[in-house]
Amino acid sequence: MARAEREPHRGAAERAEGVGERLVDALLERAHETPPQLIAPLLAEQVRLLGGRDVSILLQDHEQLMLLPLPGPGLITEGPHPIDGSPAGTAFLSAASTEIPRGAGRRIFLPLLGGAGPVGVLALTLDTVSGDDRRVLGRLAALVADLIATKGGYTDQFSLARRSSPMSTAAEIQWSLLPPLTMSTPEVEVAGILEPAYEVAGDSFDYALNEDVLHVAVIDAMGHGLDAAVMATVAIGAYRHSRRAGVGLAEIYAFMDSAIADQFGVEHFVTAHMMQLNVRSGLLQWVNAGHPAPLLIRHHDVVQQLKGPTTLPVGFGGEQPQISEQSLRRGDRVLFFTDGLIEEHLSGGEQFGEQQLIDAVTRIGPTGGGVRTMVRTLSQTLKRERGGITSDDATLFLVEWRGGT
Length: 405
Hints:
Residues 185-401 form the PPM-type phosphatase domain. With 405 residues, the chain is of the alpha+beta class. The protein contains ten helices and 17 strands.
């Protein structure tokens, strides 16, 4: 193509890009002082200036099964959309935009990518879609995801939109404790899930990536209901406090043990896994305080149960625990889980058992996708194989080491 022929095309693209930049800039300038309930109409206004319509914000529900519409002025409340098997779900799982025909135009589904992974999907319709439109919409979706993440800390609007069932008081406490369900960096990725999402009480997890070390705790407080949720709250608080004090795993265990014993007495306890992973070297260290052994997954197969010395559950006054170690290879995954996942009984039957869990991991592995997709798929598969029964809390937490950079 001659230079004279290229110049008009380049000029049109630059003008379109400039319009898009101004729209995103305008939204960004107004976003910091916009109350949560006005995010939707502000977004709809910007989309209209791009020639778009029928704007919808879809958020992942707590069970990680559906994308539920956020209500608000300027938004349409289509859905819910199943995460598996819908265009919106495809965009969410793949973290890439998806387009389908809609009348004379195109319906576009853009993942809302926050710092801790997708939180939902932005859907809208355009008559025609250019590459410049896609770039601008991608930036717009990223900004919307950040607004949901930052403003979600002081409004109930987004949390309520994610609920497909009533939530118990104990579950309300647990969800308020949780970090983001997923986290992804070049060195490491994690994802967790709690069951039953709207009734969970004693199970919880926490993690933090501090410099070169990923810290993780998975806990299961004894009992059910509000008592278990309160005990889990103390356990997670004690874990965070000791972790932030910069002490080692043995000292973390001792601090959590004292906190539970002092607050609830020696007849109460919390089982736990406390883990540290050096994300540069791949050295995994952990303390097992009464949990089933985690599974080491390599090339989609369970190659080892990470068995080692165990200590008494937190609160029973155990001696200084022994720390187990395992060197990981690039791409290795480690699956932590609580006993509610394997001790379930079908009516009149035997326990579900660790071997059935291992078999399920092996079946799902080759098609399981990324860490967060595998956790979702594994949770749903195991729930079906347990006959849909979840009489006790159950937690899955998956870590993948990608190698140091």
